[in-house]
């Protein structure tokens, strides 16, 4: 009996072992293909980065070599600098450097991109490069030479020693073992060098993408945890704060020092309300309430009215709805501050409304909080009729307003806002009230104008 059983089972077991071996081999091959593909992508991004930095250094030198009166050549050179810097930033983002302190180099490139872009789009005939700006470009040329040399040194070691970026990823992921890797050491050296470039005068108008919301922007005293509890209770219209949990965030190193509040909505042990408050001034930054929404019973106008009433009750006075977005059961409506008849777009609040009963499920108010300031808004030099002449004659204008927006140079400008239709599309076009230049064009959807309609 056992002999018969073994005669039957032996081929089956053999086939199973062969099948498992083949499957394991194929899995190993697939894994190797994925690893090789990832390694090739890392290598390409790294060598592209080295090439861009070399080109960037040369382009800065070419820009400085032209005659000081050759504004077109300056503009062309600065556009090329901006393009190469942006590409270098993209190359860095494709490398496994997330756990490596490389933020100073990224900030340097971001500042350089901003400086070159802002300068290239400026009217250099009216506002030519100053001696200080030329000096800054000269300093950047020298620093880019140094950085290019460092990255080339890393590149030579990678090529000579056949180093792999996958080893970098593994080394950074290993928390228990000391990191010893040529590539990591090279990039760490680059970042330390950039940290020493403190003498660069980027100019007062150069706003880096790494600029953080600073606590000094806010007014008021620093709040205690108990004061934040009371503010959260007042916002939620509650008297009992027993189940409120408050956590302090940051110690000066975050975007803004804040408190996070977690509370129950009153259901069965559901801690489903989260709120963030600034430590200074105790201003609401963020609020969200998680619950299932059963259907959509409200239309756009009723949802907007519910959000408008909510904002008014909580101290957000003089707000106007400007855009609307809806999923199956909730609506997100953006409101901006209104100063008399002028819309202040930098100061905005986003409100999430449940479409079953109009309950407010979320508020995002960071832009509103950190854009608060006194604005002296003079009458525009360009009239609405003159601004309209800058638009296409084929555009059917349905509405005109005054609005403060942030332009591509990160400057607040007073504009005429025109809403109009052309080629079956709706547009908002912003014409600078001081110069008559076109500042921005936005394509909008029909529901956006419905939400904003009063």
Automatic annotation (TrEMBL):
Domain Sporulation protein YpeB PepSY1 and PepSY2: from-to ranges: 185-377
Domain Sporulation protein YpeB N-terminal: 31-167
Membrane-spanning parts: 7-26
InterPro entries: YpeB_N, YpeB_PepSY1-2
Key word Transmembrane helix present: yes
Any one Pfam family match given in the protein's UniProt record, by short name: YPEB_N
Keywords: Membrane, Transmembrane, Transmembrane helix
Superkingdom of source: Bacteria
Protein name, entry field: Spore germination protein
Source organism per UniProt: Paenibacillus eucommiae
Species lineage: Bacteria, Bacillati, Bacillota, Bacilli, Bacillales
């Amino acid at each position: 009996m056992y002999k018969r059983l073994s005669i039957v089972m032996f081929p089956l077991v053999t086939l199973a072992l062969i099948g498992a071996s083949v499957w394991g081999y194929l899995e190993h091959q697939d894994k190797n293909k994925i690893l090789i593909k990832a390694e090739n992508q890392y290598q390409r991004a790294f060598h592209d980065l080295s090439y861009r930095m070399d080109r960037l250094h040369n382009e800065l030198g070419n820009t400085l070599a032209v005659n000081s009166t050759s504004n077109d050549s300056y503009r062309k050179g600065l556009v090329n600098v901006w393009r190469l810097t942006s590409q270098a930033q993209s190359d860095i983002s494709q490398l496994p450097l997330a756990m490596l302190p490389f933020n100073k180099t990224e900030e340097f490139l971001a500042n350089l991109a901003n400086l070159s872009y802002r300068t290239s789009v400026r009217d250099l005939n009216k506002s030519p490069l100053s001696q200080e700006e030329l000096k800054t470009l000269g300093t950047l040329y020298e620093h880019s030479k140094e950085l290019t040399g460092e990255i080339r040194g890393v590149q030579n070691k990678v090529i000579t020693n056949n180093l792999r970026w996958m080893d970098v990823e593994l080394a950074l992921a290993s928390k228990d073992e000391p990191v010893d890797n040529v590539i990591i050491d090279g990039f760490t050296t680059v970042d330390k060098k950039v940290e020493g470039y403190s003498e660069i005068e980027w100019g007062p108008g150069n706003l880096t993408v790494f600029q953080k919301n600073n606590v000094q922007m806010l007014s008021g005293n620093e709040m205690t945890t108990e004061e934040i509890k009371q503010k959260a209770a007042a916002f939620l219209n509650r008297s009992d704060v027993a189940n409120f949990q408050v956590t302090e965030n940051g110690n000066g190193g975050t975007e803004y020092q804040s408190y996070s509040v977690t509370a129950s909505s009153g259901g069965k042990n559901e801690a489903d309300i989260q709120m963030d408050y600034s430590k200074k001034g105790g201003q609401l930054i963020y609020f969200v309430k998680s619950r299932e929404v059963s259907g959509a019973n409200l239309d756009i106008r009723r949802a907007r009215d519910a959000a408008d009433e909510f904002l008014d009750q909580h101290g957000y006075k003089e707000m106007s709805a400007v855009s609307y977005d809806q999923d199956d059961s909730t609506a997100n409506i953006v409101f901006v501050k209104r100063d008399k008849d002028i819309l202040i777009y930098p100061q905005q609040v986003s409100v999430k409304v449940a479409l079953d009963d109009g309950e407010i499920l979320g508020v995002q108010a960071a832009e509103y909080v950190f854009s608060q300031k006194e604005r002296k808004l003079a009458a525009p030099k360009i009239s609405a009729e003159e601004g309209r002449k800058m638009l296409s004659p084929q555009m059917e204008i349905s509405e005109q307003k005054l609005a403060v927006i942030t332009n591509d140079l990160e400057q607040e400008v007073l504009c005429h806002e025109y809403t109009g239709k052309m080629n079956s599309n709706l547009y908002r076009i912003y014409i600078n009230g001081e110069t008559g230049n076109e500042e921005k064009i936005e394509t909008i959807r029909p529901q956006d104008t419905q939400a904003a309609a009063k």
